[in-house]
């Protein structure tokens, strides 16, 4: 058993409000694995479901939640090539992220581009990989098509807005409040729609909006209505069920519209489609390094305040991605350093690739969406 470390341990399925920081043994990497000293962890809706035992698969008890990590490699297992202690990395794992250390298969670990903070590294893993895989590889989206994104102000929704813009799509953002709709516009959406209005589908038609793709992380009644909003040969991307309800598809809608219901599960891509996994990770790294992709963070909370992070998502208060700060790590060695240290790992790239956020501090991204730009060119696969 490894040395003790601080971790959020789930001894029994229950409400996220019961979470607290405790102690767990530090894991040891096996063959083909690396041990990562955690700096930041991205929170996702799925993490909360797993804590409650409400997800479609159950993690074995006890377990440490958290799957989107960024930090520094502390140790490599046998057979690992291309990664070494001291590398700044991000990774997507099944569980174990909300701790000081976590083990990750080397196949899902990627180096962070120079100048990208740990907070951003943790924020892009699931949401932005999901958006890119969904749009480019599942929907086969083409430049000029129109996408309706549900839950547009959430972490997954804002990722879809950003990626769709880079692929040359017209983006219609659906959100429930004026604040969230404005956030979506600031994040790059072309137009917005109020889905609390019972006549929102008719409003789309009145405005001459023909929907080719629906990006749906919400599900429930809203997802079912959005399926009906598709045009001929439209595609609804099933991302998740943040509403808590799984809708029942009306097969006659698919028949009448020549429409497709397309499932998207990023968690299986690395194992089932390694070439696709490598391609989408490479594309995201290129966009980040070039300053063309600037993930919007809702807030950065400390590990001791992880319950507040989950509450922001559950209560639909989050606009953008919620990230948990586990430790402030030195860029080169992974050792603790003073908060707010600038340098290669503490900066956010501007559009020109230069650090120009407040004091080079990544926390200045909280609830501050990226600026809108002119319609971007489509990036070829």
Order of helices and strands: EEEHEEEEHEHEHEHEHEHEHHEHE
Sheet-strand content, in percent, reads 15-25%
Number of DSSP helical runs: 10
Sheet of most strands: 7 strands, mixed
Number of strands: 15
Amount of helix? 25-40%
Overall shape: it is globular
Q: What's the Cα radius of gyration? A: 20 Å
Q: Pairing-aware structural class of the strands and helices?
A: alpha/beta
| Mean pLDDT across all amino acids | 85
Give unreliable regions as ranges. 332-381
End-to-end distance: 45 Å
- What assembly state would you assign to the polypeptide chains in this entry? single chain
How are the SSEs placed, and which strands pair?
Elements: E1 4-8, E2 21-25, E3 33-42, H1 45-52, E4 68-76, E5 88-92, E6 101-105, E7 109-111, H2 118-138, E8 146-149, H3 155-166, E9 170-175, H4 178-187, E10 191-194, H5 200-206, E11 211-216, H6 220-228, E12 230-238, H7 251-257, E13 260-263, H8 269-272, H9 274-289, E14 297-302, H10 306-314, E15 321-325
Parallel strand pairs: 8-9, 8-11, 9-10, 11-12, 12-13, 14-15
Antiparallel strand pairs: 1-2, 3-4, 3-6, 3-15, 4-5, 5-7
Please describe what this structure looks like.
Helices cover 27% and strands 23% of the residues. By secondary structure, the protein is α/β, with parallel strands linked by helices. Strands 3, 4, 5, 6, 7, 14 and 15 form a seven-stranded mixed β-sheet that branches. Strands 10-9-8-11-12-13 form a six-stranded parallel β-sheet, with helices on both faces. Helix 3 (155-166) links the parallel strand 8 (146-149) and strand 9. Helix 2 packs across helix 3 (155-166) and helix 2 (118-138) crosses helix 9 (274-289). The longest helix has 21 residues, at 118-138. It is globular.
